[in-house]
Specification:
With 349 residues, the chain is of the alpha/beta class. Helix content is 41%, strand content 16%.
């Protein structure tokens, strides 16, 4: 069964990255025949749930391959899944590639919705980047952390752990946002990890505490981030490190707190979709994500996975992050029960 990387696994991964030390390729190493076929197709449709960065990757691909018309659908990970399933069921599949967190991709794998394409670029990655028996490859890793806008909370004691929200301070009242695990892959992964590691009652207590504090359910990541940055809701139950890094790069006074009891490490992965309308362009894009995009990931101060990648500036080394083991396959089996538990604890329908 698939498990998200444990702390020991992170140490092994770091050692591989440091010891092997391959640098980024300066140009695409795509197969000329594949490139020619992709240009002949002339189109590519990417479904992704990483709104801050996916447009950057697409723009770079368009610049590298101007002959290919690129369109995309960007939303929550489960939203892009639902749209794809609906379109495929209607005989109107549009997606060629999925770029997503792995709960969605694991479900798609189980349902036979992924193509088994493996990029030749994987030779420049640790084995971890190509999970055994899976049809997706890992592009970058994300970690979740509690986040505060220091301008608006500079004299307020901040939460240091998930369980601090179970008994929230009065100063946090009406100051918090959180996300919906029915639409957010990261929110679901966190819910499942808390349940698997600490049990139902402790997990319920965290979400009950959020509601008691007057926390607001943000409809989308941009909406939650906007309120965090404006100070309207200066405390976020969690932020994904790529959103944090992007905001800090623009001067936002945010603090990223890795919870004491551990956090979730979630890889962002890419896959060609089964029956892709533009299969050559899809494969070319996957190769591009595993090659040139690795440099873009690093420049965005994110955790790239290609051998020799440096950790993001100002972020903890992955090997030093205390992680909560997460069995995604098991979480998906229990998805309905977990969502019902969350709805019951929060009163949200």
């Amino acid at each position: 069964m698939l498990s998200i990387l444990s702390r020991d696994g992170l140490r092994v991964l770091l050692c591989i990255l440091v010891l092997v030390g391959f640098g980024m390729s300066s140009a695409s190493a795509s197969d000329p025949e594949l490139e020619a076929a992709a240009k002949k197709e002339g189109s590519l449709v990417v479904y992704g749930c990483d709104p801050p960065q996916t447009p950057v990757y697409l723009a770079a691909f368009k610049k590298r391959y101007p002959e290919i018309n690129v369109t995309s659908y960007l939303a929550g990970c489960w939203q892009i899944y639902n749209r794809h399933v609906t379109e495929r069921g209607a005989g109107k599949q549009a997606a060629d590639v999925f770029f997503s967190l792995e709960d969605v991709l694991t479900r798609m794998q189980d349902e036979g919705l992924l193509d088994p394409y493996r990029s030749p670029e994987l030779k420049n990655f640790p084995a971890y980047a190509a999970p055994e028996g899976k049809h997706f490859q890992r592009v970058k890793a994300l970690i979740l952390g509690i986040t505060a806008n220091q301008t608006y909370l500079k004299d307020v004691p901040l939460p240091q752990d998930w369980f601090d929200f179970a008994d929230p301070r009065k100063e946090w009242r009406e100051q918090i946002t959180f996300y919906d695990p029915r639409t957010s892959s990261a929110a679901f992964s966190l819910l499942a990890a808390l349940h698997q590691n600490f049990g139902e009652e402790k997990t319920r207590s965290i979400y009950r505490g959020l509601i008691e504090s007057g926390a607001e359910l943000a409809p989308t990541t941009p909406a939650g981030l906007s309120k965090l940055l404006s100070g309207e809701k200066p405390l976020m139950f969690y932020i994904v490190n790529n959103h944090y890094s992007g905001a800090v790069a623009k001067g936002a006074p945010l603090q990223f707190i890795v919870p004491k009891s551990g956090t979730v490490v979630s890889p962002f992965s890419v896959s060609v979709v089964k029956d892709a309308p533009n299969p050559a362009a899809a494969k070319l894009f996957v190769d591009f994500m595993m090659n040139e995009v690795q440099g873009i990931v690093q420049d965005a101060n994110e955790y790239a996975l290609r051998n020799g990648s440096r950790p993001p500036e100002g972020m903890p080394d992955l090997a030093e992050v205390k992680t909560l083991p997460l069995d995604i396959a098991e979480a998906l089996k229990e998805q309905k029960q977990l969502i019902e538990m969350w709805k019951d604890a929060t009163g949200i329908r």
